[in-house]
Amino acid sequence: MSENMEGFRSLDGSDARIKSDYIDIVFQHGNPDEVGINGCRLEDVIDHLIRKLLDFQGRALACEENAEALNHLELASQALVKRRRRRELQGVLGTRESHVADAGATRSTSS
After folding, report:
1. 5: which of 10, 17, 19, 98 fits an S-S bond (Cβ 3.0–4.6 Å)?
2. pTM to 2 decimals?
């Protein structure tokens, strides 16, 4: 990866890198089929958070709030899988083109 990732933009135009004192996340920049894999997906970040909370739940740090957070993260993960499948089925995966959220909906603005 280039040292100058700060200027990269994700497919949707948002920053491809989040960097602070304790966090450095590089998101995929461009279609992996065209530019290769050069970063992570939202799903990857959510998966890491789920694993961390599961680790907490297996120790003395287990609590109702962690369980609730896990539930929401799992719902977020499932929603992103559904989005990817729809985009694949509609032939817009890897493009900036919107997809149809469901049979009765108008074109979505999310990617």
Report:
1. 17
2. 0.75
Whether 91 has a pLDDT exceeding 80, the answer reads yes
- Asked whether the CA dihedral 49, 30, 37, 1 is positive or negative, the reply is negative
Q: Residue 85 carries which DSSP code?
A: H
DSSP string, 26-84: EB--S-HHHH---SB-HHHHHHHHHHHHHHHHTTTT--HHHHHHHHHHHHHHHHHHHHH
pLDDT at 100 over 90: yes
CB 47 within 8 A of CB 41: no
Distance CA 88, CA 70 (A): 27
Asked if 61 contacts 54 with a C-beta cutoff of 8 angstroms, the reply is: no
Q: Distance between CA atoms of 15 and 58, rounded to whole angstroms?
A: 35
C-alpha 56/C-alpha 91 separation (Å) is 40
